[in-house]
Each structure stands twice: as structure tokens, then as C-alpha cells.
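Morning, I've got a small favour to ask if you have a moment. Here's the protein in full, and shout if anything looks odd to you:
***
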Amino acid sequence: MQQLTVASLNRDIKFEGFLLVRAAEQRTSSNGGKYLDMTLCDTTGDINCKMWDGTVQPPRQGSVVKVRGTVQEYNGRLQMRIERLRNPAPGDDVDASQLMPCAPEPPESMLKEIHRAIDGMKTPELQAILREMLLMCGDKLVYYPAAQRVHHAERSGLLHHTLGVLRAAEAVLPLYPFLDADLLKAGAIAHDLSKTAEFISDEAGNVSDYSAEGQLLGHLVHGVAQVREAARRANVDGEYVLLLSHMVISHHGLPDHGSPRPPMFPEAEMLHLLDDMDAKMNEMEGVMRRTPIGAFSEKIWSLDRRLYHPRLHEEEKDDRPLPPISSADAYSGLL
């Protein structure tokens, strides 16, 4: 299946090919007309699409569609105006592994690495709580993304982000030996696990909506409840339960970013810094992949700025191969 990637699209480019539906709904314009508002993607990124035809029904989330359209720019962001849309037909050369954004490592290996980190801890209270929390998440951990959009919005993105923060924690611990290593690593593993209850995702990693718990509580408050319930099931009490609960509820750092409390001890502050770093680096990596060398990106709303792609590797082609997508064959049957 040879076609342009989403990351390679620029203004005025005409596109024809297959894309995965991340979201699609029929909306009403200011003049009363109906149109389709969609987010379509491949493994390199996603793009907002509009189809100004009120007779076309929105395709199913997680399905593959073939589209023909022209890339435009609206409010500083790329947008595709769709002219034609159809479902795949028999005989179409569709490679679903090229369309499904997923973590760069197999989820099974990422989960094993997290379990090894827990097994290597010297604090049985934290080990018991974390094992219960992983059990409470169940099979969702294998495929859940870390976000609906923005960072690690991919199949197995929650594991990808969790492991990224854990590896960063292990890297900085030798620099700050006064930190409690087990507590910091426990916070890295636990901090976002309640996202499996915050929103609703299919097995392709597409988030359709936030759950009732997600909208009424959010993953910080729900995460504290998850820590407490895991501790109860593991018959653990004492200060570690309180400390881990605080790390979960404070890892966004400031009230403006959703944390009811700021980090109040060093391990909590370090978790906040590492979480913020991993999220921003993941998002910036995606922006660099779709921004030509020597150019500025569109405004990235979550970062409130545009990004520049330096000319450090200008000798490399813009169409250099992307990192391989792992376990693609296992995922392709989902579509």
C-alpha cells in the first residue's frame, strides 16, 4: 500500500488513500447545513478532516476509509477538505498495520519490564499495592492509550508513557541518591493507571469519550481511590499508602494543570517533572516527524507555541524511514 503519510502532508497537497477513523460525527454549520467532522490517521499522525456533504453518514470509529481530498490550513493548523469517501472494497490493497498508531514496543514486553521493576523493589508494601493496581486494570493495559489526543495517543500508549517515566526515574536516581528509589519508581508506575477508568477506548486505542468517572472525578482523584483500594486488598496500611496517594494526586504539579495539591516531598516533585518531560518529548517527537527540516510547525495548542525543526540533520531526507511498528500483525486483525 503506497500512499503519502499524514506526517508528510502540507498545504495544497492532494491526498488519495486509506486512513483510520479516530473520530467522526455529523455536525451542523452556522447556516444550518450538515457536514462531517472527522479525525483520520495513519501510524505517523492524525489530521482533522471536513466533508461538506450532509448526506454522508459518519464512518464507524476504528474503521478504515478511503478518501480523496485537499490539504488546507485553518487557524494555523492543517485540515483536509474531503471530496470523496468510501469504505474499502474487495481487492483494495489495504495494510492496516500502516494505519494504526501504536507504541514502538510490544505491550507484552513493556508490561514484563514494569513487573521486573516491581520485583526488584525492596519495599514489600509498595510491591503489594502496585501488583493489585495492575490486576485492577486488567487487560485494558495491553491496548489503552495514555490520552485521547496529544501525548501517547496510540495503542498501548499508557504502557509506553508509564515505562518512559519509569525509565527516566531509573536514569535520574544515581544523580539524586537521597531520593527513595522504590517510592519514585512506584509513583512512576502508579501515576496514570486510573486512565483505564477515565475514558472509553476500543482495542485499537481509539478513545470514543470520557467515562462518567473521568468526567466527574478525573484520573487524579480516581487514582487516589485506586491506590487506597489496592492497599485495602493487599492488606497494606501506613505512610506508604499516603505518600503514593499524594504522588498520584499531585503529579500534574499545579492547580491550573489539575492537581489539587502541589508536590510536597522530593519524590513527588521528581515524578511531576519526569511525567511532564516524557509527555512533552513524546508530543514534540511527533511534531518533528511531520515538520520539514528548517521549517516551523503549526501552533501546538497544548504547548502554546510553534516548534522549529533544526537543520542539524539536513543531509537526511525528510522521507527517511519511520521507526518500525511492533506487533503489527497482531493488531491488524482488529480492523
